[in-house]
Amino acid sequence: MDHVHWVRHRCLQLISTDSRRGWYSPSSLPPKSSLDTQDPLVQRLIGKRRVVVSRWGPHHAEYHSVSKGYRNNSIRTTKYSLISFIPMNLFQQFHRAANLYFLFLVLLNWVPVVEAFQKEITMIPLAVVLTVIAFKDAMEDYRRYRYDKKINNTLTHVYCGKQQRYVERRWAEVCVGDLVRLCCNEIIPADMVLLHSSDPNGMCHIETANLDGETNLKQRQVVHDLPQQESEFIPENFNSRIECENPNNDLRRFRGFMEHPGKVRVGLHSENLLLRSCTVRNTETVIGIVVYAGHETKAMQNNSGPRYKKSKLERRLNIDVLWSVALLLLMCLIAAVGHGHWLSGLKDTIFMIPDDTPPALAGFYMFWTMIIVLQVLIPISLYVSIEIVKLGQIYFIQNDLDLYNPRLDTGVQCRALNITEDLGQIQYLFSDKTGTLTENRMLFRRCTVAGTEYPHHENAVSLEQYEQACGDADPSHTLRSRSSRKSLSCKSLSCNRSSVSLNTLTAESDTHSPHDTLRRHTPGAFSSTMECAVVPDPQLQVRLGALSSPMCSPHRQEAAELSHILDFFLALAVCNTVVVSSPTQPRHMVQMPVVRTPLRFLEEKKALLQKLNLPSFPYSPNHSTDTPSSLTKKLFFRCRSTSYFAPQTLITTPQSPTTPICASSNTSSSPSTPALMHSGAWGENVEDLQQAKDDGADETDSDDEDEAEELLYEAESPDEAALVQAAKAYGCTLLGRSPEQILVAVPGTGPLTIPLLHVLPFHSARKRMSVVVRHPFTGEVVVYTKGADNVIMELADEGEDGISREVIERTQRHLDQYAREGLRTLCVAKKVLEEQEYKVWLKRHEFAETSIENREELLLESAERLETNLTLLGATGIVDRLQEEVPETIEALQEAGIKVWVLTGDKQETAINIAFACKLLRPTDQLLTFNCDNKEASEALLHELQHEVRPFTKGGESEDDWSSCDFVLVIDGRTLDFALQKELQGPFLELTCCCRSVICCRSTPLQKSQVVQLVRNKLKVMTLAIGDGANDVSMIQVADVGIGISGQEGMQAVMSSDFAISRFKYLRKLILVHGHWCYARLANMILYFFYKNVMFVNLLFWYQFFCGFSGSTMTNSWVLIFFNLLFTSVPPLVYGVLDKDVSSGTLLDLPDLYQSGQNSQAYLPSTFWLTMLDAFYQSLVCFFIPYFAYAGSDIGVFSFGSPINGSALLIILLHQVIESRTLTWLHAGLLLFSALFYYVFVFVFSVICVTCSSPANPIGIETKMMSDPLYYFVCGLTTVLALLPRMLLRVFCNTFCPSDLVRAQKMEKLPPEDYFSRVRQWRDNKATKKLSPRHIPQSLTVNADAPNLTDCIPEAGAVLS
Amino acid sequence: MMASSYNAKDENGHHPGSVDSSGPSAVKSKKSDNTDFKQQRLPAWQPILTAGTVLPAFFMIGLIFIPIGIGLFVTSNNIKEFEIDYTGVDMSSPCFNCSQNYSWNSTSACTCSVPFTLDQPFESNVFMYYGLSNFYQNHRRYVKSRDDSQLNGDKSSLQKPSKECEPYQTSDKKPIAPCGAIANSLFNDTLELFYIHPNGSRIAIHLGKTGIAWWTDKHVKFRNPGGNDNNLSVVFQNTSKPVNWRKHVYELDPTDPENNGFINEDFIVWMRTAALPTFRKLYRIIQKKKVNMTPTLPPGNYSLEVTYNYPVRSFDGRKRMILSTISWMGGKNPFLGIAYITVGSACFFLGVVLLIIHHKYGNRNNNTDIPN
Fold first, then answer.
1. How far apart are CA B361 and CA B369, in angstroms?
2. Which of residues 1047-1106 of A touch B (CB under 8 A)?
3. Which of A678, A978, A986, A1346 is the most exposed place for a label (fewest CB within 10 A)?
4. What ipTM goes with this model?
5. What pLDDT, in 10s, does the model give residues A1300-1328?
C-alpha cells in the first residue's frame, strides 16, 4: 500500500502547480538586493519575516499578537476528512483524462436520441474505477491519519509558566514560542532555536537520519552571547525576540537574528536550528524555543510525494491510444454513413418506429450512439491495469533477495512508481565515479611532502594483505591481517609503484560483515576500523621520529623539512570537521579535557622548538599535555578561549618563520636535488631505518590497539577521516575537538590544545576548506587549507625563490603520478597571517558572519580573500577502492548494449585509471583525448578526431556491431563546455556515437546534467543516471531513469532518484533482469489489452452490418460491460506481473538478451498493427462462424450473442496462453477462474433474471443455448480457426528465425551441463564477432595536450594483465 | 499439447540467498522472505511454440475435426427442408393480388392459395416456419420497444407501460397491451396446409399450435395479468389493442385459455426478436402420426392457404413458408459440417508441413542455434 501514492500525487500535480517543488528548487529567490534596499525593517517584518517571542517571557502580551498566525505543531497529512472525502476524492479523480472520457460517455448516454444502453449500465465502468481508486485513497489516507495521530500524541517536555516547570505535553500542543526541553536520544518535535545545552561548550549534536538519512552527527550551537549561558537556564528570564525568515524548505539555510533586551542583535543561522524529527545525541539536555511548528517545519516542507515520470512505453502507448481513437471514429463514421444510407432506402416499414428524422441527421445521431456502443475500443481500463501491474512489479523488485544488502538491511527502494519498464530499455548509462563505482571508503595510500614523495609501500602491501584476508572471509581476519602485516613489515620493499592493483582491490566482497555488525551497533560514519589503519612510510617516520627521539638533528635544512612535515600532518589532523567520539560510549562525545600544564611540558617544548629551529616564544599556560598513554583517560577542564588573547598580544613575530628557513636551506645545502639527497640518506642508514621502522610499526600497532578502542572519528566526508587516520599513524592524533579548540597529540610533545579561530567549511565552488588556528609552537595565526589539487595549485604562491616553485613542480609531478594510479589527490597548503592582516580580515569576516541577508555569499567571499598566496605543504593520494563486482557489472552492461559514460569530478588520469580498473577501458582500446582551451581549437580537434574515427566506422558499417567499438573518448570539463555549445553539439555527439564509452572528467554537477540532457534530447535514447552524492542530483533528475546509491554521502541522491540501490553491482540484476522482465511484461500486457478490446468490440461492429447500423448489440449490456471489466481483466494483470520469458540466471549469463528491450522489440509499431490485424481477423472469425452457422434460422438477437461471447472468451483467454511464456498454477488458476466466472455469471443471470435488463431479457437464453450441442461445435471451430494464424506465426518465427530470447528459452530447457556449454559457446560467438574486425594501427593516438597519457595506457593495461 | 518442462534449473544455485550470517538479530529486518513466489521462482510450464512442439496438436485437431465435420454434414444432409416464398412479388404468383392491395388499413381479409409439391417424404415431426427477409427485427429501437414487466403480468405496467414503448404506449388515452413496436408488428398471416390427395381430395393437415415457444418464455417470462385463470377480457378491460392489430390480445386464441393473452405462443415466438434480417420463426408443429408407418408428410401435392394480412412489400420484404424436419443439431445447415472438414483438413495438412519443417530445420536448429 506504500506505493499507491501516485494517484493522489498526480491529482495533486494537476490541481496545484506549486506543489511540484523539488528538493533542489530554491524556495525563494536569493535575496541579493535586500542589502541595498533601504526598506525599513519593520515593513519587511510583516511580509517576509516572522517574529518569535517566548510564551512565558516578559513579552507576554506581544506573544499573543505575534504568534496568532503561526500554526501549531499538530500535523495533518491526510487529504480528506470523513465528510469531505467523497466530494474531494471525486473532484480529484475527474482530473484524469480517462475518467473524463467515461463521464462524457455516461452523459452522452443520457441524451435520448443517442442513448445506446440503459443509463445505469454505462455508469458501471466509471463507478468501478472510481470506487477502486477511492478505496485505495481512503486506505492510504487512513494509514496517514493513524500515523499522524501517533506522531501528534508523542510526548515532550514543554515549559509551563503557570506551574513554573517543564510539563509533559503532546507534540500537537507545542506552539511557536514554547520552550522545549529535550534529553539525549529524544526526537525534536519542531524546529527550534537552540538556547541552552548541557554541554559546557554550548554545543549539541543531532542526528539527521530521519531527515536525510545521514547518520553522522551534526553539531549545533547555542546562540552566541546569550546572557544566561553558564548558569541554569531560567525560562522567565529569556526575553529576547527572535526574528527569522518565513518557513521554507531549505534544510541547510536558516537566517534571522535574536534581539536581546539591550537591542543587541545576534545573527542566527542553521547552526542554531534544531530540526524537527532529528534526534538529539551526545548531549544530556537541550532547551530551545520553537520557531517553526507543524507543517511549517523544514522537515514537513520537504515532504514531497513520490515522483511521477512518464515512461517511454507509456508515451508509445499514448500514441496507440490515439490510433485507437482514430479507429473508433472511423468505425463510428462508417456506421453513421451506413445508417443514413440504409434509412434512405426504406419507407413505410413495419419494424421502424415512426420517426421523421431525416436520414442524414439520424446518421449523425448514430455516430454518437456508436461511440457509446464501441467505447471499450479505447482501453481505458488499461490505465488502471497498468498502474496495478506496476505496483505488482515494484513489489517483486523490492522483494528480490539478490538486490538485498544484508549489511545495510536495505533492498531496492522504488521511489518512482511508474517507470519500472524503462529499466528494460536503457541505452545510455551515465555513472558518477566516486561512491558509485567506488566504495567511497577512503584509504590513505601515499603522500608527498615538500616535494618529496613517500611511497608507503608497506601501506600498499598491508592493503593487499587486508584484501586477501578479507577474501577468506574469516571472521577473525582482523587479527590475522594484523599479525601478517607485522611479519611482512620486515620484508623487502619492492619498488613497484603501481603495486596497488585496483583489480585485487575489488576482489573484496561482502566481507565487511564483521565490521559491519560492529558498525551497526556503533554507527559512527567512518570510524576507525582496521581498513582505515595506515602503515607509516619508514622514511617519513624516521624523519618525523627525529622530533620525538632524544638525539637532535642539527641540520637546518632538515629542520625546515621537518617543520614542513609537521605542518603537513598538523594540517591533516586539524583541517577538517571530524568529530571524535569513543565507541565504548556510543554517541557520547569525548569531553574536552583540560589539565594544568605540568612542568615537564615546558622542557619538552623547548627541545622541540630547538629541533625545529623555530624561534621560541613565550610560554603560554594553555598548552596542555600529559603522557600520551594515559592522556585520554584523564579529564581536564576546558580552557577559556578568551585566555588565549593575553599571550597572543605578546607574540608579534614580524616575519613568518618557515620561509626564511626554507630559503636558507636552499642556500646552505648542496646543489644536489633533495630527492637524490634522500636516497643518499636512505642508503646511509638502512640499519637505522630498519630499526626505526620496526619500532615504528610496533609502536603504531600498539597505538592502534590502544586508541582504536578509544577514538572514533566521524567525518562528513570519508576523505577527511582517511587523512585524520593517516595523521594519527604518524603520531599526529586528533584527540578532541570543540568549537574553540582542537586537542592534538603531536609526536615528541604530547597533547596540545590548538586554538581554533575559524573554520571555513568546504564549498563546492571553492573546492577547498580551511581552518584558521593559532599555531601551537609559534603562536602565529595560520591558515591550513586542504582542497582539490588544481585549485590549491592555482592559489599556491610560487614565491620569489626557486624552492617553492620547485616544490610545486615536483608535487605536480607526483600528483600526476598519483592520478595515474587512480588515487584521489588532495593538496594541503598553509599560510601564515600577520597579526595585522588577520585583524583586517577578521573584521570583515565578522561582518559577513553576522550579516543576515546574504550571509552565504559574503562568507564565501571572505574565505576566498583569506585563501591566497598559500604555501604548498604537500599532497596526499587516497585510494578509493572499487566496489565489489563493478567490473563485472560494467562488462555485463556493455555486453547488453548499454553505452556507459562516466562523469566524474576527478582528474583525468584518475578517471582513466578507474575506467581501466572497472573494465570500462580495455587495454586494446583506443583512447581519444579531447582537451582544449578554447572553442576554435576544440572545433578543429573535434573534426580531426572524427576524421580519425570515421574510416573505422565506415569500413565496418556492413557488420553492424563494429560501429560502436573500441574507441573511448576522454574529455575534460572545460572542453566539455565547448562541446556542449550549440554549434559543436552535433559533431560531438556524432563522435561519441563512434565511441564505446565516454569519460568526462572534472565535470561540474551542472555539466553532468547538461550532458545527460544533450544525449537524451538529441539522440532520443533512454538514459539512466546513477550517482550517490548531492552533485549527481541534477543528473539523476534529468535522466529518464535516475538511480541513487544510498552510500556514504547522505541521501540526497536517493531522495531525488527513481530507484535507490545500495551498491553498484545491484544495477546488473535490476536492469538486466528486472528491467527486461518489467518491459517485456508490460509491453506484452499492453498489446494484449489492445488486442482484447479491439477483438471484442469489433464483434459488435460486424453486427452493425446486419442490423441496419442501428447500434444494436447482440450481447446483453451487462455482459458487454463486464466482459472487459471483470471476465477478462484479471489474467492480463497476472500476466503483466508474473510472466517470465527467460529466467533471471540466463538473463544474467547472456546480457545481450537485454537488447530486445532496448530496441523495443516487444512493442514496435509493427507489432501493434500486427496485433490489431490479428484482433480484426479473430473478431471476423468469431462473428462470422456463428453467423453462417445460424444464418436463416430462428435464432434470436441475444441467443446469437451467446456462442459469440462464449467463443470470444475462449479465444481471448487462450490467446493469452499462446502469448505468455510461463504458465504457473497462478496463471492457470486465474484463467480458469475467469472462464468460470463468465459462465457462472451468465448462467445465473439467465436463470434468475426474469424482467431485469429489459430489452435483452436474458431469461432462459444461456440455458437454452448451452443445452444445444451446436453451441459447442460453433465455439470449438471458432476458437481453433481464430487462434490458428497467431499460433502459426509463432511457430514459424520460432522455428525459422528464432529471436535471441527464444534461443535462450530453448537453452534453458537443456540439462545444466549442456546449458553451460551452450552459454559459453554463445558468448564466444559474440566475442569473436566483436573482435574479428579489429586491426587498428597503433599510430592512431590523438592526444591534444596530454602527451603523458600515451605511456600511461599500456602501463595501466599491464597492471590489469 | 506442447512440450513442457518444469524449469527449476539454476534456481537453487543462484540464490545463496539465505545469507543469514549476520546472526540472530532482534531488529526487524527489511529482508524479504525467500519464498518461491516472492522471488519469482514458481514452477512454471514454459511452452515454446516450435514446429516440433505444436505438430501433434495440429494432427490431433485434424483428426478430431474431420470426423465431426463429416458427422455434421451428413446430419445436415439428412434433414429435409422445403421452402416456398408466398410474398407475391411476381405477377404469376397466387398471392400477387393480395400483396398489391393489402395494407394495414384494409378491413377484409385477403386469401390466396399456394400450391407446392414435396418430392420426398418428411418423417417424424415436421416443423412449419414462416420466414421473413429484409425484416430488421434487430433494429436497436425496435428491439427496445417492449415492456417486459407488462408481459410478465405486472398490473401497474399494464396500466402504465414503460416509456420504451413509445410511440406505441397509449392509444385513445388507454394503455396499449401489449405495448411497443414489436408487439405492434406481430406477424398475423394465417397459414393452413392441405394435402392434395392423388384422388383430388384436400386433406387438412393438423398443425399444432403449442410447444412452439421456449418453455421459460411460456412459463416464466410471459404471464397474463392476474393469473391465467381469470377472465382475460376483464383484465384487459382498460387497455387498448395495438394499433395494427385487428383483435385484442385476449382474443388471440379464444379456444385455448392456456394459449391466450400474453401467453399466446405465436405472440411469444414473435416477441423473441430475430438476430438477423433474414429469419424464420416457428409457426406450427406437425406431429408425426403414431398409428401407422406412413410419413408425417408423404410426397405429393400440397396447398398452402394463406390469409394475407402482413404487408412486407413496402420495404422489399419477403415472406416464406418453410417445412423442415429437425435433428439434434437443429435445422438444415451444411456450413458447419463443411467448415469443420475444411479446418480439419487444413490442420492436418499444416501438421504434415510442420513435420517436414521439423525434420529439416528442427535438427539443424538444435545444433546451431547460437547467434553468430
1. 11
2. 1106
3. A986
4. 0.90
5. 888 888 888 888 888 888 888 888 887 76
